[in-house]
Amino acid sequence: MSLGLVLLTSCHRELLDPAPQTSVSDATAFDQPYRIANQVLSLYSSFKNGNFYGGRYIVYGDIRGEDFLLEDGNLVTNADVWNLNPTNTANAIVGLWNQVYSLINNCNVFIDGMNEKGTLVVGTTIGNTYIAEARLLRAIGYYSLLQYYARPYADGNGAKLGLPLRLIGIKGAGASDLARSSVAEVYTQILADLDFAETNLPLTNGSNYNNTTRAHRNTAIAFKTRVYLSMQNYPKVIAEANKIVPAAGPFTATSGVPHVLQADYTSVFKTPYTSLESIFSVPFSSSNGDIPGTQNALQGYYYAAATGVGSIFSLNFAGIIGNTGWTATDKRRSFIYTNPPGTKKFLTKYPAASPADFSPVIRWAEVLLNLAEAKARTTAGVDAQALALVNAVRQRSDATTTLAPATNGDLIDAIMTERRIEFLGEGLRNNDLMRLLQTIPSKSTAGAKAPGDDGYTWPASSTEKSLNKLWVDN
What we know:
By secondary structure, this protein is mainly alpha-helical. It has one domain: Serine Threonine Protein Phosphatase 5, Tetratricopeptide repeat (Alpha Horseshoe). It has 16 helices and 8 strands. The chain has helices at residues 3-6, 33-47, 56-63, 79-82, 91-122, 124-149, 183-200, 208-213, 217-230, 234-241, 298-302, 364-378, 384-397, 408-422, 429-435, 462-467; strands spanning 68-70, 161-164, 180-182, 278-282, 313-315, 336-339, 344-347, 359-363. The strands form 4 sheets. A two-stranded antiparallel ribbon has the order 1-5. Strand 6 (336-339) and strand 7 (344-347) form a beta hairpin. The longest helix is centred in the first third of the chain and has 32 residues, at 91-122. The radius of gyration is 21 Å and the shape is globular. The model is unreliable at 1-23 (pLDDT under 50).
């Protein structure tokens, strides 16, 4: 058995075939600091696979909502996801499940190896930093799967069936049987991983590029605000955000990497992609093999050509782009392209094909809006800080508009609308709908899905059901 094989395959190893031509044996994988460091980088490579944060995971979060319309009925490119009716053998269902569990197993194998030997080689401090990176990536993996394959936390306060919680590395066949833990139990593990990451990751990675593409302390804190928001644990969202968000503007992170909103929204999505707003992004280069892969990249789904021809999804005129409060002068509208003769609109946030644009995982704007929402949902009336936060996000792109909601309900509505505008094309819409147990709206020929309808959550991957005899459906 080679470690190179373990770090590149899923926990269902019996489904897969050839070993890579270059590999490191288990006996020597943790013998040298450089070998250990390279294994950490391989975890990020697994994370950025096209079936996960290299493209498709973000796309799923957008197209399940109401802001995009289908231009291509091909099931390979997620027509069934848009229609809210994928089966357990669908490319999306199987591909995301297998890739994320592959990442999780890679992290588990690495953590096991570090605990057995690697930490002795590199020392406790560096060893814990590496383990923290692995645990953060594992946490994001489990969180991401929960958003599709399990009931939202709000449905039963986490008591419903969640995921098989695999925490030990699998190096061979015959280890697939594992019962599903509850949603709450999986969230508990996610938060334990993120807490460990916060404690053991460095305050900074030394350069803008490394601060964007590798985890540091604020990465863990920021992601915890997303996790707690999904659990509707608003006091914990506030507690986590308060570690790094000041009480008043300008809202620059108070410790660690000095995250701040960029004056020009569009600059966040352009070369070099490493602004202080980008807490964590997936990088791509022109190096051989460093691409999301065919039919995975964001560019092809949203804006494949200067005319929009070849794009798989256009923008829905009845979606967020039709919101009358989103003014024509808002800089974020510059990412909306109308193709001649103006019959369709496309999102140009990711125009580059090779090398592909960086894929955003979490930005400072989200932390600010997570805090704003948590404050609004726990405070009567119009909370002053929540209003200041949402206006900070709005006014950096639209200086002519000042949001002035009259009631608490109006404030919450303004924040949720701002999220749809700010994160259009960044995959958060599905999560926002489901964490609040809201109906997924209809669009064009695709009907709505209420929380109790089939298709609101995804079925289990057919590979999991065939290999895990302890699997029980929702």
